[in-house]
Design goal:
This protein is of the alpha/beta class. It has helices at 7-11, 22-25, 34-49, 61-69, 78-101, 114-118, 120-135, 158-168, 205-209, 223-235, 250-255, 273-281, 292-299, 342-348, 356-360; strands at residues 15-20, 53-58, 107-112, 139-144, 173-178, 199-200, 239-244, 262-264, 284-290, 310-314, 322-326, 332-337, 374-376.
Length: 378
C-alpha cells in the first residue's frame, strides 16, 4: 500500500495542526454550516482526550461576517473584508467556544498577521504563548487577523498560516481539510480520468504544475497554496495530509493510518527553528546577485557568502535583516541574515575578504552572510 511505511509516524503523531477552509465551514450563502462545525469539534475534542495536542487553524470568519452583514458576494475592498472579518470572527469563536465546552474542552483565540512572524521577537513570543496554551490543555483556535491586516502583512491564505504555524510549534502532522480529497494528476472536475496521488515524497515542478487556481468563490486559496504550504511544512519536518473535510471522522481515520487524501513526506534533514524563520517567516528586505563560483560554494560546499562573489545589490537593507541571494540569472537560491548594510555591500562587492577594512574603513565580519545564518531554498 502506498505510504504504508510512513503510517507509523502518522499514528504516533502527538502534536497536530488541523486547518479547515472556508468552503468546508460555510454554505454558498455565506452562512455557517453548523452540522459540519459540530462534527469537527466533536472529533477534535475526542483526539484531545486521547492525550494528543490539537491546534485548529480555522477560516470562515469573513464568510460568517458576509452572511451576517447580508452581502450577496465575497467582499472585494480591504475595508469590506475587514468589516466582515470583525463581525464574523466573534460569531465563529462564540460557536466554537460553545461547542467545545460541551465536551469540557477549553479553547483560546489566537489572531496573527505576517508581521507577528516576520519580527524575530514576536515570532518567539507567539511560539512561547502557543506552547504554554498546549501545556495547559487548551486548544488554540488560530486565524489570520483580517480585521487589521493589509495586503503587505497578510499570509495570503490560511494554508500558508497553518504551515508556518506547524513549523513554529514543532508539530508532527498538519492536516489540511478542503473540498477536494487530495492532489490529482489533472483537475477531477474537468477530467474523469484524473487520478489521486496518495503519496508525494518530493514536491517537484511537475507536482506544482498540477495545482490549479483558487477553489470556491468563498475561499481564498486553491491547490497551489496547499502545495506551497506542504513545501513549507515538510521543510520543517512535518507530515502533511490534504484530505476531504466531507468524509466522516476524517481526522481520526487519518490518525488511525487510513490512506486518505494525499500524504506529503517531510524532508529527512529538517530545518532548525531559526533557519525556518529565515526561510519562511521573515520579510526579505533586499537581494544580492552572485556569480557561478559563489553559487557552487553555497550549494555544493555549504560555504558562507563572501563579498568576492557578489555582482549586484538590489534594495535598501540594514545589517541583521534577511535578504535574498540570487544567481546571475536571477534565480533565488538562498536567504540569509546579512552582516552589512546594502550601501556597504555595494562598496565591497567583488573584493576579497582582506580588502574589506581598506574599502570600508572597518571590518566587523569576513562574510556578508555566514553559513550559520544562511538557508538554501532551491
Amino acid at each position: 500500500m502506498p505510504g504504508e511505511v510512513y503510517q507509523t509516524d502518522i499514528r504516533s503523531a502527538h502534536r497536530i495542526v488541523v486547518k479547515v477552509g472556508t468552503s468546508s465551514l460555510t454554505y454558498p450563502t455565506g452562512k455557517l454550516n453548523l452540522s459540519r462545525l459540530e462534527e469537527l469539534v466533536r472529533e477534535l475534542a475526542d483526539i484531545q482526550n486521547q492525550g494528543r495536542e490539537v491546534i485548529l487553524v480555522s477560516s470562515g470568519a469573513m464568510g460568517a461576517g458576509q452572511g451576517k452583514l447580508g452581502f450577496d458576494r465575497r467582499p472585494r475592498t480591504i475595508p469590506e473584508k475587514q468589516a466582515a472579518a470583525a463581525v464574523g470572527q466573534g460569531i465563529l469563536m462564540h460557536i466554537y467556544e460553545k461547542l467545545f465546552s460541551e465536551y469540557s474542552q477549553m479553547v483560546a483565540q489566537v489572531l496573527l498577521t505576517r508581521f507577528d512572524l516576520m519580527d524575530r521577537l514576536r515570532y518567539l513570543n507567539a511560539r512561547n504563548a502557543l506552547n504554554t496554551l498546549l501545556q495547559l490543555g487548551v486548544i488554540p483556535i488560530v486565524n489570520e487577523n483580517d480585521t487589521v491586516a493589509v495586503e503587505g502583512l497578510k499570509f495570503g491564505d490560511n494554508d500558508t498560516l497553518s504551515a508556518l504555524l506547524a513549523g513554529l510549534i514543532d508539530a508532527e502532522l498538519l492536516i489540511i481539510l478542503s473540498d477536494i480529497d487530495g492532489v490529482y494528476t489533472a483537475d477531477p472536475r474537468e477530467d474523469p480520468e484524473a487520478e489521486r496521488l496518495p503519496v508525494i515524497e518530493e514536491i517537484t515542478e511537475e507536482i506544482e504544475r498540477l495545482a490549479g487556481g483558487v477553489g470556491t468563490e468563498m475561499a481564498s486559496g486553491g491547490m497551489a497554496t496547499k502545495i506551497q504550504a506542504a513545501r513549507i511544512a515538510t521543510s520543517s519536518g512535518v507530515y502533511v495530509v490534504i484530505a476531504d473535510s466531507r468524509e466522516k471522522n476524517i481526522v481520526r481515520r487519518i490518525l488511525d493510518g487510513e490512506p486518505l487524501g494525499t500524504l506529503f513526506v517531510p524532508r529527512e534533514n529538517k530545518l532548525d527553528a531559526r533557519k525556518r524563520w529565515i526561510a519562511f517567516g521573515s520579510t526579505v528586505r533586499g537581494s544580492v546577485w552572485i556569480d557561478d563560483g559563489a553559487v557552487e560554494a553555497l550549494l555544493q560546499k555549504g560555504k558562507s557568502l563572501l563579498p568576492s562573489g557578489i555582482i549586484r545589490v538590489e534594495g535598501i537593507f540594514e545589517a541583521g535583516q534577511v535578504i535574498s541571494v540570487k544567481s546571475a540569472m536571477g534565480l533565488e537560491i538562498a536567504r540569509g541574515i546579512v552582516n552589512y548594510s546594502s550601501g556597504a555591500v555595494e562598496r565591497i562587492q567583488g573584493h576579497r575578504t582582506g580588502e574589506i577594512e581598506k574599502v570600508l574603513g572597518y571590518k566587523e565580519f569576513d562574510e556578508v552572510i555566514h553559513r550559520n545564518n544562511l538557508i538554501v531554498i532551491t
